[in-house]
């Protein structure tokens, strides 16, 4: 899914809130999966942010290892884990929120299902009848 990610730490140290929110956010396709980590010699739950134009992982894009959801609300959620920078592992947290697109980029609303009371089941409807 496409999200906006803000890094909340730099080399393990917590960033002041104003610095975290004023830095440019990273947008992309967020994927969380179990991957074999060659350095740890075990499977690790990994969060990766992919560039929307490229399906392959990039060294430029961040990666969060041993990821866990720490908090969640309707507006955003926080992932925590550790990142590897130049062979050194640091604590890291990501503030993840929905990517807001311009109204002309949004897909049309999906058809809603309405039950018309007969045995054939629900029917597709674009208007609430």
Description of the structure:
This protein has 129 residues and is mostly beta strands. It has one domain. It has one helix and ten strands, in the order βββαβββββββ. The strands form three sheets. Strands 1-4-5-6-7-8 form a six-stranded antiparallel β-barrel.
Ordered list of secondary-structure elements with their pairings:
Layout: E1 2-7, E2 9-10, E3 13-14, H1 17-22, E4 26-37, E5 42-50, E6 63-72, E7 76-85, E8 88-98, E9 112-115, E10 122-125
Antiparallel strand pairs: 1-4, 1-8, 2-3, 4-5, 5-6, 6-7, 7-8, 9-10
Q: Report mean pLDDT, rounded to a whole number.
A: 81
H/E element string?
A: EEEHEEEEEEE
Structural class computed from helices and strand pairing: mainly beta
**Number of contiguous helices:** 1
Looking at the structure, what is the overall shape?
Answer: globular
For the largest sheet, list the strands in their spatial order.
1-4-5-6-7-8
Beginning-to-end CA distance, first to last residue: 32 Å
Largest sheet: 6 strands, antiparallel, barrel
Rg (CA only): 20 Å
Beta-strand percentage range: over 45%
């Amino acid at each position: 899914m496409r999200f906006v990610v803000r890094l909340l730490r730099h080399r393990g140290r917590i960033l002041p809130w104003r610095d975290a929110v004023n830095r440019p956010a990273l947008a992309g396709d967020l994927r969380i999966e179990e991957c074999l980590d060659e350095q740890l010699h075990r499977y690790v739950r990994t969060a990766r942010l992919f560039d929307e134009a490229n399906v392959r992982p990039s060294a430029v894009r961040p990666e969060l290892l041993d990821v866990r959801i720490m908090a969640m609300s309707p507006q955003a959620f926080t992932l925590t884990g550790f990142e590897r920078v130049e062979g050194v592992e640091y604590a890291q947290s990501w503030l993840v929120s929905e990517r807001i697109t311009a109204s002309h980029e949004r897909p049309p609303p999906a058809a809603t299902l309405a039950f018309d009371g007969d045995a054939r089941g629900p029917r597709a409807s674009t208007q609430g009848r």
